[in-house]
Amino acid sequence: MIKDIILPNLGEGIDSAEISEVVVKKGGIVSPDDIILVLESEKASMEIPAEVAGEVKEVMVKTGEEVVTGQILVKIELSQTQIEKEPYPENDENNKSIIETPSNIASKPEAIETLSKGSDSLFASPGVRRLSRELGINLELIRASGPKGRITKNDLHDYIKRKLAIAESGFSLSHSRPDVDFSQWGDVELKKLTKINLITGKRLQDAWQSIPHVTQFGSADITELDLYRKNIKEKALKKNIKVTFLPFFMKAVTHVLKEMPIFNSSLDQSEKNLVTKYYYHLGIAVDTPQGLTVPVIRNVDKKSILELSEELMDIGSRAINKKLKPDELKGGTFTISNLGSIGGSFFTPIINPPEVAILGVSRSNWELVYDNNSGEFIPRYILPFSLSYDHMVIDGAAGAVFTSKFSSVLANIDIFSAEK
Fold this sequence. Notes:
- 29% of the residues lie in helices and 25% in strands.
- The strands form 6 sheets. Strands 11, 14, 17, 18, 19, 20 and 21 form a 7-stranded mixed β-sheet that branches.
- The protein contains 10 helices and 21 strands.
- It has 3 domains: 2-111, CATH 2.40.50.100; 122-167 and 193-210, E3-binding domain (Dihydrolipoamide Transferase, Irregular); 214-418, 2-Layer Sandwich (Chloramphenicol Acetyltransferase).
- A hairpin with a 4-residue loop joins strand 20 and strand 21.
- The chain is globular and about 80 Å long.
């Protein structure tokens, strides 16, 4: 039995990636956990496992090639042991697009289209996806009119027409940089941007242009939280767990999201309905040598500070070493960008679509704060933070309430000691 290993859904808004390394060769023997390819997408570099045991019969791709969701990567002849483990019978109609002999899936665009639609991904045919890539258009910005929220070629053409109309009116959403020979003034070095840099930049530019951003600034007194964290930190070190402020920020954000669910929502593709989520999966921006990536920590509300600390250590290390899995880059409901270890007071973080808000955390500093009870200025440890939100969904009053609640939660140690 031949199994086609296909490119899985890599995350929200990502339907292609570049192959940076092909690990296997024809005739090689693989086990389920063996890596067959290393990919580089706009969010991260990631390894694709074989998933099954058997012999590599054919490698369908090569290094440097751009591959799309649903494309066949490698054909593997399953071992007898693997065949016995396969949960799906060969005559199961629901799996003919995944396991099929001979490999004629490439001639079935409808099968590839089905594969390219995950539960939280866009629904569009390979032709529409290919055209959008050629034109540099983010499909997340297009309103779908087809069945089941499918983006059609007409939807894509309508989007292009609207952008052309905007350009003709004198307002352009794009720009081109001047061609300047900088070497005429001194020594220069030309260094190619990574694919993550290029596509993340494009994605953020699209988000900035398509979402009406408002940024609310605030601060929180975390003097008592600092003492509480140091107490936990000493105990955690015995278990080789590093406890930073970030898991506390994550728990505080989740606490506020439960009170203000509009911040844990997304607009649907029609932009006429709001999808409120009652799960709390937080994206955590991680700076890697390859560029910015945003792995997702799931079910933050159900995990303790130590559990979150341990998971952050693991996922941060794997992000830097290109070991993240595709599923760890999608499904986020709210994002935190933490620059506290670097510095700065405030910044304006850009929303990560399809989310409607993002929190930017800066470095805490000791400040003299006037105390009404004593009538004196006393030193307090103050955290500056910035909340950017989608003004189509959230108004300024709600933004101010969110920042106020977030500050209050961080100042109340009882909330953290009472939770898991």
